[in-house]
Amino acid sequence: MTEELATPVNRPETLLPPKVEKASATNTIAERARKRRLRERNLVVGAQVALVIALLAGMYALNATSGNLVMPRPDDVLRRSIQMWSDGTMTRALGESLTVLGLGFLLSATTGIAVGVLLGGFRFVGRVLDPFVNAMNSTPGAAFIPLIIVWFGLYSEAKIVVVWNAAVFPILINTAAGISNANKDLVEMGRAFGAKRATLFWNVMVPDALPSILSGLRIGAAISTVGTVIAELTMAQSGLGGLLASAGNRFQMDKYFAVVIVLMVLGTLLTALLRYAETRFARWRVSLSDNR
User: What is the pTM assigned to this prediction?
Assistant: First the structure.
């Protein structure tokens, strides 16, 4: 009897429930994806830092071989930047440029989205106006500057119109394309449930076109920065464009590069902000091909 009790009993191995195994596998995959994204982000940051260091080294080398007139030293640019921010020169110029940029971009976004929705939502109107939109878009914006000066003068109003003319067409074209290429399956589904045309337009087509609209706004914001500088260079010189013209005419290359850096940072921030908004608003879209 004692020997029988001492004999070990073979028991089956404990198995995890299927749901626990599936959750564990999902967590493992998610962890691997997170580590992969972290490695990729570190590589991107490392490559960007290496590029910055290479650019700075190139500036020093070019300055040593060609002098300050061709390329200023980075430390001279930094000192000039600190001086211009300290005495308020850069702050005043940035405020003037942001006023023109903001009003021009707001006007171009409003009119571009409104006309784009009209062209994309009403096919007959789109077919009638499409040649005229393409003709205006293919004409260089600089060709309209003399006419804008005659109509609006040389000051803020004219500069805002120049920025509007530069940025409105990318916004308009992207909006019209997004509306006209709305998800046909969603539209047909809405019609099958008896939705009216106005309901389909505002609740299906316009929301589905939102990523395209935001993409147009991102492109328009970048072009608005360029348009602002062009307007300030060609009309009454003020803002960052006026500082560029003043520094260039006097061959003050350290001052010139200080202003260029501000313009680069400004354009990068605007583009990053709109790209973030584009990513956030695009999350709701349903991908039928992925069965989500």
Answer: 0.76
